[in-house]
Amino acid sequence: MAKAHSYKFCFGPWNISEGQDPYGPPVRQPQTFDWKLAQLKKHGFDAMMFHDDDAVPNLDGKSAKQIAKEARELKKRLDGLGIAAEMVAPRLWFHPNTIDGAYTSNDPKCRAYAIERSKVCIDIAHELDTDLIVLWLAREGSYIRESKNARRCVDYLVEAFDKMLGYDKSIRLSIEPKPNEPMDHAYIPTIGHALAIAQLTRDPKRVGCLIESAHAILAGLDPADEIDFACAFGKLWSLHLNDQNGLKYDQDRPFGCTNLRSAFDQIRALERNGYGKRGEYVCFDVHPFRTTKEEHWLDHLTNSRRTFLRLLEKVRSFDEKSAQALVADRNYQALDQMVIEHLMGK
After folding, report:
1. Are 270 and 4 in contact (CB under 8 A)?
2. Which one is catalytic: 52, 53, 54, 228?
3. Is 296 assigned a catalytic role?
4. For the domain with range 9-320, which CATH number is right: 3.20.20.150, 3.40.50.300, 3.90.550.10, 3.30.70.20?
5. 51 noted as active-site residue
6. Which one of 77, 106, 160, 251 has the minimum C-beta count within 10 Å?
7. pTM score, whole prediction
């Protein structure tokens, strides 16, 4: 029997949030980026996710030379700590030019800004020695259907992706779909949409996807099925594990805290598809509860990893032979109870 592989874990600086929400101010004092890097290493994580301006702050006001210099300096700090950069994502939802969308804005000047900003993101990724560009298409959608031509917006998205793929022949684009929030309706709401639009690009082999558990749930889908679907195409290049309490706002709850069986099924899907054997990371896109005290600030991340590893033991010790016998007998009632009792420890 082949030896089971180990997983590598990461998170992003935004996952150590101060607790501010639309209805209230921060409840924890902000910490520096260097402090967050140190916490990542201290708590045994392997890599950090970056937005472009996490890596190089205020980059819109800097020259290409200055951006490259600061990115190289960050790479030296990462190397010194033994931390890898898992990916870099262009932050295209804060700037005034992205109010009406980025790649799909009705204003051609704003679309041009989004593409140029994405090229800068690629330059930063190159300096950080990662080929993975994650595209969370936050404002690519509409609030009312009549405000945009959705057919034309598909062309705009493909044009943007093609320009990125042409700018650097080594990078991979990983689309992170989400059905809503901040937009009412997003143009690329599911993994199926992401993999479909990949086929329209100049190099479909370099366009894949990132699955986030909560985003799949918000679309009314099962995250484990989405994992299997993406892996069937060989296109699951990154992963954001978390949890979600129903079809509400994006909650980024700790992994497994709401639906332990769903978390079990997600890891089972990762295992049967060999996720991680080609260097992919398990990323936790989770946030601390607003009530969290500063001395417990990293618990949501370490707890998510602990839950993952405990459930991984459950997945690897699950009696697949007995389960398949029940499947063959079409005795799904007994299979259901078998899973429940396995998770409860019987």
Report:
1. no
2. 54
3. no
4. 3.20.20.150
5. yes
6. 77
7. 0.96
